[in-house]
Amino acid sequence: MNKLYEKYIKTESLPTLFCPGCGNGIIQYAAIGAFEKLDSSGEIPSSDIACVSGIGCSSWIPCYFKLDVMHTMHGRALAFAEGLKLSRPEKKIVVFTGDGDCLAIGGNHLLHAAARNIDLTVVMVNNYIYGMTGGQKSPTTPKEAVTKTSPFGCIDEPIDGCRLVTSLGASYVARWTTAHPAQLEKAIAEGISHRGFSFIEVLSQCPVQAGKSVYGEKDPSKIMEGYKKNTYLFRGGEAKPDKDGRIPIGLLHRDDEAEEYLDKVEKKLKSQGLR
Amino acid sequence: MAEITIDKACCKGCNICLSVCPKKIFVKSKKRNNYGTSMPDVKEPEKCVICRMCERLCPDGAINVEGERAK
After folding, report:
1. What's the pLDDT band for A176 if we cut at 50, 70, 90?
2. Is domain B3-66 classified as CATH 3.30.70.20?
3. What is the spatial distance between Cα A249 and Cα A118, in angstroms, rounded to a whole number?
4. What average pLDDT does range A228-255 have in this prediction?
5. Over chain A, what is the mean pLDDT?
6. DSSP label at A130?
7. Are strands B63-66 and B3-6 parallel, antiparallel or unpaired?
8. Can you tell me the ipTM of this complex?
9. Cis peptide bond N-terminal to A15, omega within 30
10. How confident is the model at residue B34 (pLDDT cuts 50, 70, 90)?
11. Which residues on A lie below 8 Å from B34 (Cβ)?
12. For A18-271, CATH number?
């Protein structure tokens, strides 16, 4: 077993419930790598980190951590995380959520958390499908993809979570894929140390449910090679797919000057003479 | 030299490590893991450059690489 796993993962509950080749395990390793990086540099001890998750395959990621973890209702992970942050402001909170959990049922919570610019780190695992329930169409499923609920090809426009939260005022927005684990680890560490709403979208793979119909490949390593080919590094401008349909990855937006929600709360309490 | 171990209790046989290793150290074998699928074998570990991509990309944390990267 990996030495980092022995330090941060409840080894008695291994193996994880993820299918063989699932991208969630790679994101799990990147997250514990980021915790280790922050812990060893003395910036944020891992005892100060708390994790919140909703329902879905990706929401099982923090359940294996030897940290404070809250596994909450479907779509409401961000609502719980905001409450936790307001009651325990010294904690750094990481929310693990899937594309259905975050953009479909929890979409409204995402809009308001991003607009408030509250100090949370959201890791949205985007595998383009509802994996846990058997492969139904999700809000991010690309056009013309065949799924269980769109057997003749999907007709909806996919939702771009990164552009959505950028327009609402999130102060750190990044997108990486499971084929870029070192960059993902760095982005999660930056997102945790950044004060403000950090949104990290991770393009992941679900070889069992989405395999051939959405990515065109069933082998997990080939899906990851496809992610390397179908993405380009974002270097300013508008974070939109280019004319070849390649998706921008990298740090998409960062604003260190934006006012954080807890600071606004403190300021209001001070102006009312309550602090 | 790097010491590479694969935990048969964690490995699920997804074969991601076979394709990500730049030196192609992992090979297919007839060994079975606890999950019931075939797990990779380590061939010529002295070729390892300790890039640790297999550690990062193993979804189940089954691979451990011991050793320091040469500078």
Report:
1. very high
2. yes
3. 24
4. 86
5. 89
6. B
7. antiparallel
8. 0.91
9. yes
10. confident
11. 15
12. 3.40.50.970
